[in-house]
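User: My instructor asked us to take a sequence, write out its structure as tokens, and then describe one feature of it. I'm not sure where to start. Here is the sequence I was given:
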Amino acid sequence: MVVWIRAVDDHASRASVIVIPTIVTTVIAVILTLLRLYVRKFVMRTLAWDDWFNVLATLTTLVAMGLILAAVSYGLGRPIDSLDMDRAVYCVKLLRMCLFPLLFSTIFLKISISLLLMRLFLTTNIWKIFFWCFIAFNTITSLLDAAIVLPQCSPVARTWDKRVDGTCWPKRAINGAAIAQGSIAAGTDIVLSILPIVFLWNVKIPIKVKGAICGLMALGFASAGFALARTILVSTLTEATDPTWEYVNLYMCAFLESSLGVIAAAGPSTRPLLRPNFWNKEYSRSRSRSLPLHTVTAKKSSPRVWGDTLFDTRFDVEERPCGSRDSQMGLWAQVGMAIVKRTSIEVVRGEVVVSQGEGEKVVGRD
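Assistant: Let's start with the prediction itself. The structure tokens for your sequence are:
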């Protein structure tokens, strides 16, 4: 017996409700991820694990987009009684499969953001322990949720085809597990959105830079909002009488939670591309590849390299305070009317290197 029955206009369609935001946010996420890789590889030369996890999050988001668009072609967004039943069942099957890349996308995304924050702002072992525990907790809870997606019904095919004889878990158990995971996802999104603001509070960078970075990271609050919306709509999975019609809002929220998270993670790293004259070849060649002097610390054991982060603004002329008495201000004042000769010092494997123009020489060893 077919349970999914609903009388709706045969020509009604809600496909655009999910197709448009899915494609738009995915395209933005992919572009920002590629720009992030370019900046970290060729501009800052600090490509690290957080970048690769961001790539994995983007790839799994692309897989989820593909499954959702395929489901639309099989009837997602249209009333089930206007569809061929076999196509409708396959549509629901595709949506169930889509849960896996969406879950893994959020796992990779939160690992990426955690590793980035740990690398940029880690100051004590307490924070190090916090971030690793945070990664472990989020990963384990998400994997547990992924592990119960298919075993909910026996045989598994009954999960997406109610015509198959079999049994399923009680609705209360299925909904409870999904609500718990959704609540945890929303909570972790909020934590990752607040932490950058907390860490940046005392960092000496221009206010407008802080505002821009915090604004981008605050997209995590939007991601958390969609996670909460998904949690509220989770009962749709077990109680829908017309899944191809009623699943639209649920999967739109689940997808936007993932894609907006990728955008929030990749966006701040592209900031160097917005610097004036960045794409000017002469300007690019003149930029020093060495670390700013303020990044060299007395402790040899310190692993942090502040100058190689997206927050480094030492060479942003337009953002330096006019009244600053920085040792380089004499040069900055003349930048509009003369050629500036830059001298930089960097420590590389124990060697102190002085670089002037195109030449460099070793003047001592650490």
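For the description part of your assignment, you could build on this observation: Residues 231 and 268 are 28 Å apart (CA to CA). Try explaining in your own words what that tells you about the chain.
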